[in-house]
Design goal:
alpha+beta; BirA Bifunctional Protein, domain 2; 334 residues; 41% helix; 11 helices; binds phenylalanine
Amino acid sequence: MIEILEKIIKEAEKDISLIKNLNDLENFRIKYLGRKGELTTFLRKIKDLSIEERKVVGKRANEFKEYLEKVIEEKRIFLKEEEKVFFFDYTLPGRKFWLGHKHPITQVMEECVDIFVRMGFKEEQGPEIEDEWHNFTALNIPPLHPARDMFSTFYLPDGRLLRSHTSPVQIRVMEREKPPIRIIAPGRVFRPDDFDASHSPVFHQIEGLYVDTDVTFLDLKATLEEFCRIFFGKEVIIKFVPSYFPFTEPSAEVLICCLNCLGKGCERCRNKGFLEILGCGMVHPQVLKNVNIDPEVYSGFAFGLGVERLAMIKFQIDDIRLFYQNDIRFLSQF
Ligand code: PHE
């Protein structure tokens, strides 16, 4: 008899390890402890045994029964908890994750770069800590040249500086590569301006440069007009007005109409009608010479876009400081 009992115990131990859910558990209970269960049936037979045998076998069988009841109860509690966790109603709508998103300046910068990349420009990066040569001298702004005032600059104790525009990237690329060159270089720039509604000591520019044989002002105009149309939409009105930069000749500024009044002048644009978004021009022959490109053979155009300006016009924001205050109520609108 004891052998039969040991066999049942062994089998039950094995079955316990296979229980995975409440259904398995119930089947297990019925198999051993149900009315016709193996252990129940066995216990019923004990009364037919001799007193000696009954003592030994009965004790073992009853202990095992108690053990099984305890195990089943514990497993039931555990599996119920587990089913709660894994219970999944496929008909429920998904829960929305709040993941955050890109800063509006990053969004605008990426969008601009993307437009130029589609036109065939290649993205480039340059260092934020620059030297005088790349930030000024090579760009035809020698020391003591009054044009250095156009670009007030943060200097480092070792004579290097924080770039005051992205134009030094032009120089770095032209020093390294031979034409044809067609690059777009987004990045942070620094000027010691106090914060106000339209100034920030750190802001963003996107530099563009195209150098090849026979590049003309028409290429420059067409490229920038096409950019504005894609970025702002078809109805936008843009103006090229003559300007001055030491590294381009001729130079121009591009103005874009206020999107609210389309140039007529309104409260939003403080009656200006048009806002400057970039400086541009034909690369000055001296700049090409400075990087050993022959101006008799090659010509080029360059431009520098103000990213914050673009973002302010596009999203109709009238204070640049909003971009840097990291107020989630502002940022989450974009
Ligand atoms: N670097 C100029 C600025 O910061 C913009 C510019 C770039 C003008 C390229 C002409 C050509 O104002």
